[in-house]
Amino acid sequence: RFSCRASGGGLVESGGSLRLSCAASDRAFRAYIVAWFRQAPGKEREYVSGVDQRGFSTPNAAAVEGRFAVSRDNTKNTVYLRMNNLMPEDTAIYYCAAGASFSTVAATYNHWGPGTLVTVSS
Q1: Helix, strand, or coil here: 84?
Q2: Residue 103, Cβ neighbours under 10 Å: how many?
Q3: Per-residue pLDDT averaged across 10-22, rounded?
Q4: pLDDT-derived band of residue 116, with 50, 70 and 90 as boundaries?
Q5: Which pLDDT score, from 0 to 100, does residue 1 have?
Q6: HSE on the CB side for 18, CA within 13 Å?
Q7: CB distance 8 to 73 below 8 Å
Q8: Number of Cβ atoms within 10 Å of the Cβ of 23
């Protein structure tokens, strides 16, 4: 059964950087669009960024534009989220999700894995 899992979270100071990874269980991954979502305490899950099957980025959320970038390595069945200039408001659990078509709506994606916590200190 296909699955994907986010990793790479941690504690970082404001202005710092992290790279998250989304590792998929098998090559079926290559047929999917992969999106990153995040959920901060007390808030709804929100779209962050994504990448299509060919490696082209989907639009970033306005809150992360210019700071976050997504890349994809299909040979490793992995998608990355590079996060620069992190701010305390980026603190959240970050999830990756895979689906057949692009959307900023979480319910569109069929495959989700456990998230990874990113904490940005001020």
Answers
A1: coil
A2: 16
A3: 98
A4: very high
A5: 84
A6: 21
A7: no
A8: 17
